[in-house]
Amino acid sequence: MSRVLIATKLDPSAEKILRDTGIEVEVCQGLAEDALAEKIVGFQGLIVRSEKVTRKVLEAGNELKAVVRAGTGVNTIDVACATERNVQVMNTPGANSNSVAELVFALMLAACRKLAYADRSVKQGLWEKSGLMGRELEGKVLGIIGLGNIGSLVAGIARGFQMTVVGFDPLISASKASEMKVELKSLDEIFGSSDFITFHVPLNDKTRGMIGAGLLGRVKKGAMLINTARAEIIDHDDLLKALKEREDLLLGCDIFYEGDKEGQKDLAFIGDRLIATPHLGASTSEANRRAATAGAEGMRDFLVKRMVRYPVNNLEIPPDLNPRFLELTRLIGEIAYFNIGEYQPHEVRITCYGKLNKHIDVLTGYLIKGLMDIYQMEAISPKDAVGRAVQRGINVVKRIPDDSKGYGESMTIDILSKKEGYRETSIRGMITQAGELKINRIDTFLNLDLIPSGNMLFSYQKDRVGLINDISSALSGGKINILNIRFTTDKESNSIAVFQTEKPVSKTIYGKINKAVKPYKSFLMKV
């Protein structure tokens, strides 16, 4: 008989679902890391919400087969360690989405109608109606950062308030945004034009501090920021500075830099300009029931039927597939991301040559997951990636290879965008006999033969005499050692130069290079 530990507070429906299929269940809440590591011994399943599942806990789970997060975010689970130990990690995307979306509007309405102050005032026996003039949501502009499950629901509710909705999400197509009646804009445009700005992106290396002084300085007079996602998305010091300097700004927060705990919150100094809640986004009976049911069903199906619902990690890699090809899909996707710029893709194509074509389904899943990770807009598994891309309006095409070209076991990935005209990038790569990831071609530049590693500068321009010397001189002047250079031209006398350097190229040196070379496209990346 399988045993499942529910280490969190869940709706009783979760226990019933598991027990009805003969699974032994124990509920034990509030366990710290050491206590959870001691308790997990002998259990095959673990269900959590915001509890931390660390390496110590996973290594102590001598019989652990699956961890289910009754919710979406898995930043509290050491997924890499779970994968190492062949432990399946699953989540329940969408279970809490409606509750969070509704809270966004609760915060907006509370601020616009000064409800917290009005409630307190009336209960004190006062009648300050004349001093509590508010404003409506109708006709205002709502900016949504992240148009995934929650962001798309927020957009739908906003239409009911007759608001104009603009949004930023690098991985949603213009056609899908149009269906949602959302106008895609840049972050600069959203911050300069919106009356309300709400954040619905995960916290990761790309989104941490993504909102800083530059964007905060563009916020229009009297605007409101609503953060029900993660506090660290907005730079802490820059937000404090903006709130001190701008007494017209409003803030709605369900999360705080200090974390989910008691104690004074440093944002509280703005008084009634802040509407604060103690991480209530998912705290509705309906959301708790949905998350509990979905989490228990996911655990039951895995332990009883070996069926995986909403996997976060993928343990099913074919034994005859070189895992380096999974890394290659991510590498090509990352170069393609920089190469096409921040334009929403409407189509992704993958072609696998030779014997590699038998694994095209697995590789496509890893490619799309890699792109989602790179754009950092949604946490998904390779198994769910293609379906989620289609939901976002991205067409995924698995092309039939022409093996007469003699490309061996290699892959070509094409990304197309229709935003602001037609844009396309096409990259082919392979694994060398030494096991290195190799980029053979980028767009029209053949025989590039690039082995990406470390710090890299990509520069595209018309070919001319002295080009390489100009870039080398700028790097040398900045005391940056050059480790390798790859250079080639196409039939139109365009050229690509890729410099691999010992340390990152600074913004100052990068600016000098662009001024001297005048490329039509350039970017920095690190592998």
Automatic annotation (TrEMBL):
BP-aspect Gene Ontology terms: L-serine biosynthetic process
Enzyme superclass (EC): oxidoreductase
Catalytic activity as recorded in UniProt: (2R)-3-phosphoglycerate + NAD(+) = 3-phosphooxypyruvate + NADH + H(+); (R)-2-hydroxyglutarate + NAD(+) = 2-oxoglutarate + NADH + H(+)
Enzyme Commission number: 1.1.1.399, 1.1.1.95
Entry similarity comment: Belongs to the D-isomer specific 2-hydroxyacid dehydrogenase family.
Organism expressing this protein natively: Candidatus Glassbacteria bacterium RIFCSPLOWO2_12_FULL_58_11
Molecular-function GO terms, alphabetical: NAD binding; phosphoglycerate dehydrogenase activity
CDD domains recorded: PGDH_4 (cd12173)
Domain (ACT): residue spans on this chain: 456-527
Protein name: D-3-phosphoglycerate dehydrogenase
UniProt-listed PANTHER family: D-ISOMER SPECIFIC 2-HYDROXYACID DEHYDROGENASE FAMILY PROTEIN (AFU_ORTHOLOGUE AFUA_6G10090) (PTHR42789:SF1)
Function in brief: Catalyzes the reversible oxidation of 3-phospho-D-glycerate to 3-phosphonooxypyruvate, the first step of the phosphorylated L-serine biosynthesis pathway. Also catalyzes the reversible oxidation of 2-hydroxyglutarate to 2-oxoglutarate.
